[in-house]
Design goal:
Blueprint: H1 13-20, H2 30-34, H3 55-72, H4 83-93, H5 117-132, H6 141-151, H7 158-182, H8 187-196, H9 201-221
Helix pairs in contact: 3-6, 7-8
Length: 227
């Protein structure tokens, strides 16, 4: 008879798992995805599986991912997969033309990890989401607003934050036009003249690097957040 392992407190592995485990609703029940709202504030959520090719694990991962995207503004799905094959899936989701060499994908062992009905259904759902959001990689302005509400430590609503950003753009455009006028032209004309003074890659890169350093210093000095 096999002897069970125990920890320092005399607990068996089965007892530890039993104490930590939580009952879950059926995978197709919306309450299943809601169980994972506790991870809404996380920047990265890793979803594994105890065995490859098990339908229940694939459906569970899809349900959790859908919940995090729909309700909590998550906007990147990364897969541990061969890069060329995963890139082909990305093109399918975004309805981009497939490259000639990528007409066949996930044809190497183990094909059943990817070429199955559950994964196909999830890819179809992602594609529909992008269609409804006009191809926005954020999966829609409503989801982006929800994400803002979670990550911004400010008193303003997401709508107010976005409006403030638009107001800033208008202000900067007006300032650019004013400066360009003082230099005797429209903004594009002035920029073209400036570009003519730095016509080579080396000088353009040097000017860009200097501007980047100045901008980075300003952001750090003013504790400006990024989205």
């Amino acid at each position: 008879m096999r002897e069970e392992k125990v920890n320092r407190r005399g607990e068996t592995l089965a007892a530890i798992v039993r104490e930590a485990a939580e009952p879950l609703p059926d995978i197709d029940d919306p309450a299943f995805g809601a169980m994972f709202d506790r991870f809404a504030d996380a920047r990265v959520v890793l979803l594994g599986e105890a065995s490859h090719g098990t339908s229940e694990f694939y459906r569970a991962r899809a349900a959790i991912t859908r919940r995090l995207i729909e309700r909590h503004g998550f906007r990147i799905v990364a897969a541990e997969a061969d890069w060329p094959d995963a890139a082909t899936i990305d093109r399918i989701v975004r309805r981009r033309p497939l490259r000639m060499e990528s007409s066949a994908f996930f044809d190497r062992f183990p094909t059943w990890m990817w070429k199955n009905e559950d994964f196909l259904a999830f890819i179809g759902w992602l594609r529909d989401q992008l269609d409804r959001s006009a191809g926005d990689p954020r999966l829609g302005s409503n989801l982006f607003a929800r994400k803002l509400a979670l990550v911004l430590d400010v008193d303003r609503s997401p709508e107010q934050v976005l409006q403030a950003a638009l107001d800033d753009i208008e202000r900067v455009e007006a300032e650019l036009a004013e400066v360009a006028a003082s230099l005797g032209g429209a903004p594009r004309e002035v920029l073209d003249r400036i570009a003519a003074d730095a016509p080579t890659d080396d000088t353009v890169v040097a000017v860009a690097q200097e501007a980047l350093l100045e901008t980075t210093a300003f952001v750090e000095a003013n504790d400006i957040i990024t989205l």
